[in-house]
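dumping this here so i dont lose it
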């Protein structure tokens, strides 16, 4: 992600409906995992950009480190008071079995050798540790937005599960997100000429937030959405 995109994300992430709800998903997943033994309280946030998700981990009591391939992103995360390390997700500078949790939100789709990333996630996880992964779904949604933000692919359920299992992780759950707004996103991106990462008018933002929050209570996770989430563990 370019430096300008990272700065734009930092400016938007506390109010934009997309980022607010994704952080809410992360919080719910952390609650589901429950308290972890002290050796497993270390967390790694891969592709952290400005560290929005890293902050969620810290607030939940994890000893969290943000990593990003962009040195600018690392500096911006440090400016926000976070522990941050410049790293290539294909060769993480952390010891084997050193983490109880690894998050990788919107990372795999940027890297052609995505299997190297999932292998590294599995390597740094301690037995009993968990991985939370999010990716854009469905090549039918491929658009100028994907080009603008540096995607090399979008995922189907089977392709995501396959690359995670190939690394030796056990998949516990896979679900779609942003299902209700998928038709709107599809229409918008067919007309779009660039990234969706921009400020949304207040009333529009509030309306989109209400729609996407409804997915917390509706059984729509098995349908096609705009993103896929996956939770896995190292047995």
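and the seq i came up w/
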């Amino acid at each position: 992600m370019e430096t300008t995109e990272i700065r734009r994300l930092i400016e938007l992430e506390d109010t934009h409906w997309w980022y607010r709800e994704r952080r809410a998903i992360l919080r719910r997943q952390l609650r589901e995992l429950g308290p972890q033994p002290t050796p497993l309280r270390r967390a790694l946030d891969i592709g952290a950009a400005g560290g929005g998700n890293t902050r969620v981990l810290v607030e939940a009591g994890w000893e969290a480190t943000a990593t990003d391939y962009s040195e600018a992103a690392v500096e911006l995360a440090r400016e926000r008071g976070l522990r941050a390390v410049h790293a290539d997700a294909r060769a993480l500078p952390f010891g084997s079995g050193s983490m109880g949790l690894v998050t990788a939100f919107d990372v795999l789709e940027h890297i052609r050798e995505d299997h190297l990333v999932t292998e590294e996630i599995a390597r740094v996880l301690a037995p009993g540790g968990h991985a939370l992964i999010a990716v854009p779904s469905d090549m039918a949604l491929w658009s100028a937005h994907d080009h603008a933000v540096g995607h090399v692919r979008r995922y189907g359920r089977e392709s995501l599960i396959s690359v995670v299992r190939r690394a030796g992780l056990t998949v516990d759950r896979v679900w779609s997100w942003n299902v209700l707004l998928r038709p709107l996103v599809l229409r918008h991106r067919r007309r779009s000429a660039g990234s969706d990462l921009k400020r949304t008018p207040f009333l529009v933002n509030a309306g989109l937030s209400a729609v996407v929050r409804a997915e917390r209570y509706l059984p729509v996770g098995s349908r096609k959405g705009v993103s896929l989430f996956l939770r896995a563990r190292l047995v």
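The first strand starts at residue 42 and ends at 46.
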